[in-house]
Structures
1.
Amino acid sequence: MPSEVAIEDTARALRGIKGITVRTNELMAGHTSFGIGGPADLFVIATSISNLSEVMRTLHELGVPAVLLGNGTNVLVRDGGIRGAVIKLGGELAELQAVGNMVIAGAGASLATLCRYCADHNLGGLMFAAGIPGSVGGAVLMNAGANGGEMADVVRWVLVVGYDGKVAKLGAEELGFGYRSSRLQDRRCAVAQVGFQLEPSEGAAVHRALCEVIQRRCRTQPVAQRSAGSIFKRPENDYAGRLLEGAGVKGLAVGDAMVSPKHANFIINKGHATSRDVLALIELMREKVAKKFGVYLETEIVTLGEE
Ligand SMILES: Cc1cc2nc3c(=O)[nH]c(=O)nc-3n(C[C@H](O)[C@H](O)[C@H](O)COP(=O)(O)OP(=O)(O)OC[C@H]3O[C@@H](n4cnc5c(N)ncnc54)[C@H](O)[C@@H]3O)c2cc1C
């Protein structure tokens, strides 16, 4: 993959599947919080488990690589774009349903919508996730967390669709959650739906707690600027932000990519940053911390696509 002909042939095959959207040469800069990224050959929005399964199977049979994209808030897409297909979830796959103390969430729903929905249904347990701008699927795959909580605390099961189109339900114990990681990252599958086990709570109190967490984020993080959240994972027994601040990286820039003056673990796109700028700045930040503290920082963000 892929010549222009192969892309058009694949798009034609996919357009035979009911309920999906298929576009070609879709710029990923419009789908990432960094606002960076070249074109994906194929961009598909799946809206149900059955059409997602058909999309996956068709791509697999045609030998076209595919990658899932949530809200694009933890990815850096390279300037050359993505060969093959990028799949996003919408329609039924972004819906939420409360069943007793559980919420069944389509993986395409945003965490913000999920948090508000839980508060409206008098359910607590997800307040830690307030202000994390990702989707349910991306958050589960990354085991997103903050404020002492993480997805692993509340996920009970996950419905996944493999690249062969097969659907499987995995219990939390099969997901191998670790710090900002899960076994789903090695599985090459789409997370389609997630069952969250929550606890009864007074809705107004949950809404208040969500607001407080969001206000704290606004004070400490450059939430109004284009970024992908924390660039580096927390090293053992320390904080990446503390080490980076100590290494003096705030304000350091390569092209239009700059380390946020507000939070040393955030890179912001000041306007026209390229993935090259961001990657070069990441290496500079890493070198400065290694030189000063002897700690090698591991990146948290996922890099997709080609130069
Ligand atoms: C301002 C800001 C603050 C942030 N704060 C936090 C924080 O406090 N804690 C934290 O953990 N993160 C934080 N993040 C990072 C990010 O929001 C989370 O990691 C989020 O959960 C990623 O979700 P997403 O939908 O954007 O995933 P994406 O960025 O779209 O994708 C991330 C990875 O998940 C895969 N993926 C996405 N959806 C699916 C799916 N349905 N099935 C299979 N694979 C999928 C992608 O292929 C990619 O590998 C922050 C980001 C920003 C911009």
2.
Amino acid sequence: MALNCPRCGGDKNRVEYQGMENGAVLWTVHYCTACCFTWRDTEPALSIDPARRKKVFQIDPSHPERFGVVIPPVAR
Ligand SMILES: [Zn+2]
């Protein structure tokens, strides 16, 4: 089943892992190759339903200049 990314809405997702028990899939972890978001299909709707997620957490990967400030790495 094709899924759209909860964060960017894209369809470039892949299955990273599936939790199984007695041969049945209980949950699936997906990874979005467009925005690098990772989610499990059993997370709460507030985390994975685009209609319920806070808009501030949504991103458009075609416009990285609009991303929030990225914390610089710690000097070592
Ligand atoms: Zn995405």
